[in-house]
Amino acid sequence: MIEKRPFAGLGGADHGWLKAKHHFSFANYYEPKRMGWGAIRVWNDDEIAPNSGFPPHPHADMEIITYVREGAITHKDSMGNEGRTGPGDVQVMSAGTGVRHAEYNLEPELTRLFQIWIEPDTTGGPPSWGARPFPKADRAGKFVTLASGLPGDDDALRIRTSARVAGATIKAGETTEYALDPSRHAYLVSALGSVEVNGVRLDARDGAAITGESSLKVTALEDAEVVLVDAA
After folding, report:
1. CA distances (Å), 222 to each of 137, 201, 203, 219, 228, in order?
2. 199 — pLDDT class (breaks 50, 70, 90)
C-alpha cells in the first residue's frame, strides 16, 4: 500500500522567519489520522529565513534527524556540541534523558531542510549528537544509508531506534530499488524532482506512506533527490 500525501495538502504554519509544512500532526496542526507512521512521529519540511532559527529548547526520548536540502544549519547544544551542516548532509541527535539545543540559519540565504523525529526503541540514556557529510556522488543512482539503528549499517550515523534513513540522487529516466520488509512502515519524500514509486507519481515535496510492500522501485521522471525512512 502506498498512500500519496501531496505537499499542497499538508498542514503547516507561517511564523515569518519559519515556513513549515507538517507531514504528521505537529504543534498547532492536529490531524488524528496522521499522528505518525509506525515509529515515525514527525516529518517537517522547514524553510528558515537568513539569520534566524530555533532558540534553545528541550527534548527528551526522541531521535531527531535533520536533512539539509539547501543552505546550512548551525547546531549548538547543552552538551557543548557545535557544528554546521550543509546541503545534502545529515545531523542526528538522540535526546535521551534530556538535552537543550538551538538550530540557527546563519547563512545569507534561505535554508531548507527536513526535520524527522523517530521514537527510540527504549527511553532514557545519555543524550548524544553527531553530523557528517554524505557527498551526493556517493548515492548517485542508488540508496545510501545516512543514519541507522539497524545491524550492519556501520558506516551510518547511529540512532537508537530500529530504523534506517536513506537518501538517493537519481537522474531522469533512471530507476533504483530498495528492498523492504512488508511488515514495516516506510515514508518517502522527494526533496527535488518528480518520481514514480511502484507506479505512484510523487512531485517535489510530496510524501508517500508505505506498508505491505516487499520492494520499492523508484523511477526519476526528472533529476531527483529522495529521502526514505524505513521504520518499525
Report:
1. 17, 12, 10, 9, 18
2. very high
pLDDT of residue 135: 82
Question: Taking the model in full, what pTM does it have?
Answer: 0.97
Interacting residues of 151 by C-beta distance below 8 A, sequence separation 6+: none
Residue 160 and residue 211: Cα distance in Å, rounded?
Answer: 22
Q: pLDDT value at position 138? A: 86
Q: Does 134 score more than 90 pLDDT?
A: no
Q: What DSSP state is assigned to residue 230? A: E
pLDDT over 90 (residue 156): yes
- Residue 123 — left, alpha, or beta (φ > 0 → left; ψ -120 to 50 → alpha)? beta
- What string of DSSP letters covers 47-101? EE-TTEEEEEEEE-S-EEEEEEEES-EEEEETTS-EEEE-TT-EEEEE-TT-EEE
Rounded Cα distance between 152 and 14, Å, is 40
Domains in the chain, please, with CATH? 2-133 (2.60.120.10), 137-231 (2.60.120.10)
Q: Please tell me the distance from the alpha carbon of residue 111 to that of residue 104, in angstroms, as a whole number.
A: 9
